[in-house]
Structure formats: structure tokens, C-alpha cells
User: What shape does this take?
Amino acid sequence: MDWRAKISGFKLVKPFTCTEEEVEKNSWHESVIVGRNGYLAPEYLYHGLGSPKVDIHAFGVVLFELMSAKEEVMEGCMLKECVGFLADGGIEGSSGCLEKLKGLMDPSLDRDYPLGDALCLALLAKGCVKEDPQHRLNMNDVLKALSRIV
Assistant: This one.
């Protein structure tokens, strides 16, 4: 098996233009929306608003893909919408949450992974794909969480 990472989609890359005020706010507008729907943050998809939080959103989608071995959009459903069992208040009182998590995980792993780490990774990914960009994690938080898992 070839385990070398392959990054693609650079044909979609283009520079943003923004005013000094937008740079200070860490937010800017894009007139032409490009990218694959499953990775695009709602604020970028619907309003053309770009920020580092757009990248955090895409990173969360990639984490879900890595965990599940599924595409970002499958059978008309976005992967990030299939994790509603991960309650915002934690997993307490969420019946069958761990079984649903096992069902989400890549079957080729044959359940040979620490379930606690899988849960932490799933909650981390969910924190990255929150609808409201103000409630999404920042990359510093993501790196700290990943370093604890690894």
C-alpha cells in the first residue's frame, strides 16, 4: 500500500484581496466561490467570507474523512452532518454514542484503536466544523489537542 500523502486542488487556489480594515478583522470577501461543497465553510459558501476559520472547517472535514474512510459528501449527505450523536454537552446521556462512533470509524481498522482517542479525535473534528466560525476552534487549540492524542 502507498502511504504517501497526495495533496491536490491547487487549481482552485487564488489570492484574496482585502482592505486594511479587513486584514485587522481577519476576515475578507471573495467574489467567486470555488472549492468542493463538502469542505467549504458556511460563511464562505453562502457569503464569500474568508478567514482562517474557513481552513479550520476544511481541516475538520479532513479529520472526519481520515477517521471514517468516507468521502466528504456521500449519498447526498455531508459527512460532518452524520456525527449528530456527538452531543455538544459531551457524551453523557447520549445512548449508544460509543457504538455509533465505532460505526463511523474506518472498518479496515478492525476496531484496533483506543476508543478514547477516537472519541477525542471525533470531538476535535466536530469542534472544527461548527456552523458559527466564532465557535470553531483555532489552529493552536487543534495542535494542542492533537499533541495530547498522539
Q: What stands out?
A: The chain has a mean pLDDT of 75. The chain has six helices and four strands.
